[in-house]
Protein 1
Amino acid sequence: MNAYPSWLEVHEGDAPLVISFPHTGSDLPDDLRGRFVSPWLARRDADWWVHDLYAFARGLGATTVRSAISRSVIDLNRDPSGVSLYPGQNTTGLCPLTTFDNQPLYSDGMEPDEAEIARRRDTYFAPYHAALRAQIARLRERYPTVVVYDAHSIRSQIPHLFDGELPQFNLGTAGPSGAVDTSCDNALSDVVENFCRLSGMPHVRNGRFKGGWVTRHYSDIPGGVHSLQMELACRGYMHEPAPAALDAHSWPTPLDDDHAAPLRHTLAQVLNACLEFASTRSAA
């Protein structure tokens, strides 16, 4: 049995589906907490409650890999070299210096230098991705086809990152706008997009969020690994304050199970479609 760090949660399922949760954590290591402007600001941009939203996935046999560490410490869905995955667009880096709203995360002089960034890569990035690779390899020994599903969420309105209100479902397959995919077979992304469409909620494929490091790095279609990212607008499962009213007293709000029911229903259809795709390809 693997001995994982306390912040790294791995559940081994027996179905050909791996779900990655790189941004749902809010923990701040004791040795870093005092470097941030405020703990709330350092936690604010988490993918709040997404692992709870998908809690049903374990019942489907999915394997899950989750970090409990805040993305403000290190972003586990970024290129470890620091190269931007979204050239020309506002975004945050491997060890972010600002929030999604372009506010400084660190007190003056407390920003991580290259040595500190390298330490965080070794301490957090490397173990997370070693676990993810190991789980994909474990399932590939059993199944010819495995789906890697990277689960995310974000506030519906963040002017620094995108205009207007984000669609509810943002499917990313590392392709250009439209229906051209590079991280998975179109047969998979077409059926996933169709379930998003049938929900009646706004959706887009390869819009603002095309998939990060997990989606792009682990895709190996010839080798039987198909990956995709689902970025959800938070309003589908929790109540969002107006952007101007966002503060430590108003955010985050709790996950609202009743409010989330329609969204969760569609997500269950999506994950079942991923399983059916992998099982059908594996049986061929």
Note: Residues 13 and 59 are 9 Å apart (CA to CA).
Protein 2
Amino acid sequence: MTVAVDVDAFLRHVAIERGLSANTVAAYRRDLTVYSAWLEAEGIGDVQQVTPVMLSAFAVHLGTREESPLGASPLAASSLARMLSTVRGFHRFLLEEGRVEVDAARDLRPPKLPSRLPKAISVEQVAALLAATDGDDVAALRDKALLELMYATGARVSEAVGLNVDDVIDTDVVRLTGKGSKQRIVPLGSFAQEAVSAYLVRARPVMSAKGRATPALFLGMRGARLSRQNVWLIIRAAAERAKLDIELSPHTLRHSFATHLLAGGADVRVVQELLGHSSVATTQIYTLVTADTLRDVYTTSHPRAR
């Protein structure tokens, strides 16, 4: 059996049995294409020939790819970590399927990545951004509803554009579909409720009439489902109108949602559930962002802090 056949079997497994998204499966495919090409260049035609030493050599190869016969550029630490993670998952699958007797990638470890704090903006900056979408025309009503909902729920951009009208339940709850098609229920605050309601009544019917019938909640000006690229443009335009001299992205609202909840005293487990994180360790990085708040409280409260 060839490496290509094993790779195809793994990709079918993660797509069908594990239900991973098309984007994730495509990323796995790209990573394993690089791995397969390296194996071929090394004269390895069967995964049973792969040893831990070979995999260590592959990791070194990825870090110095400008010197490789494939002529590629070196990988960033984050990309290297992702690719080695894919290769580990592939070899674990081979062991589970009985294709190999030993998991050659068991001890393969990616480089330790520097810890990066999520980028969040202040409550005042969020308020300015949302105020910049005020208006009575259909585009303004949609943009207001979109940004209010994203900040109110911490939705990823893919989750926001993937929403259907029926996902807004009883006006005060929204059903988000996240990674791996996992669904979660998130409340909508009063500001988001008002904005979404105004959009559904006064703007969406106008937009919908310009295109084919679609269940999508957020529509473009031609009546089709709003794209992720359009959300980027909407946020950047609002930031310019608000005169926020900072780089914003759809994920900025998600980070700000989590940071502001924790700063307000929300339990990290609750925030984990709202964000749809599978591990609380992913959510806990936001607790570092609130260190300034803790420092301020300490300074003003402790008798010997000043």
Note: The mean pLDDT is 87.
Protein 3
Amino acid sequence: MLGSSSHAFGSPADAPSSAQGFHHPAALFIVAQDAAQSQAAADAAALAGAHVIGRGGFGDLPRPSDLPGHDILLIEAAPASPAELEALLQWGEEIRAWAGSRLIVCFTPAQLDQAVAQTSVADVQMLCAPDVSERVSALAIAGCRPTIQYAGATETDGERIRRLSEEVARIAEALTRLTFASAKGQAQDRDGYNAEPELLDGSGPDTGGTAKLSEEEPLPQPAAIRAQIRARRLRAQFFDPQLFADPAWDMLLDLMAARLERVSVSVSSLCIAAAVPPTTALRWITTMIEAGLFEREDDPLDRRRAYIALTNKAFEGMRNYAAAARRLGLRVF
């Protein structure tokens, strides 16, 4: 049942606007069926400086017009059944769209694929089996303004990532041309390839300004990529795995091999490939989607499942990287 509140509002005009930033402290509404999880969310709110203005359970979700005025909506999805989780996520998206609130969804590993498939991950904080610190961090982030200021203009996180990506691409192009100029004629064949790559100086909107190789360049072998993934995992037997955490690259490798093998990769499988906690992996997946390197594909046979794949931009980047490294005599995969 819902907690009582005297701060209810009845029209969209009364709803808080995310474009104007949030009140201080942020007003939080919690949805949880389990008493322990509800208390964990409240404890995290206290640590994050948020004010809990109401709580609700799975069986009596209020209409948008009946929900107390809030800045943040936190859904503790465990132990919801698949049908209950679908209803919770749909309700959360409706509330977020109507009230302009920030949405945080906490779920179990078993619920991961469905939670991602039925949620707009780019605009929602997804926490898989979170601890106290992860809840506190999510609430602190949700309580901040959704945009940042750069050079006197408002810039979203996704725009900032794309801008930084373009800067890196320009630097990479200059370094590539310098390196290839000094290494011309010194390349030799490597395992997993059957032709000599030849760098072209052409660039354009399809490559983001980076050097591109001939379209006839051979593709890397999936077995060689899988071997590198195994080698990277082997380090964990001898060193602290956190010393080598590189989820973006680990996911790129896994998705590149999967594309060459023509197999689909579920969100939960990709999180495992990232070799970091699921919540961290989900943040990286969102970042890579915003950067135009990953794309989400819905399962046409199961609306509760989604897959992640490389975009054509990322695929060409990985392919050209492998060929360029081989030309320098480097064995990357």
Note: Residues 157-183 form the longest helix (27 residues).
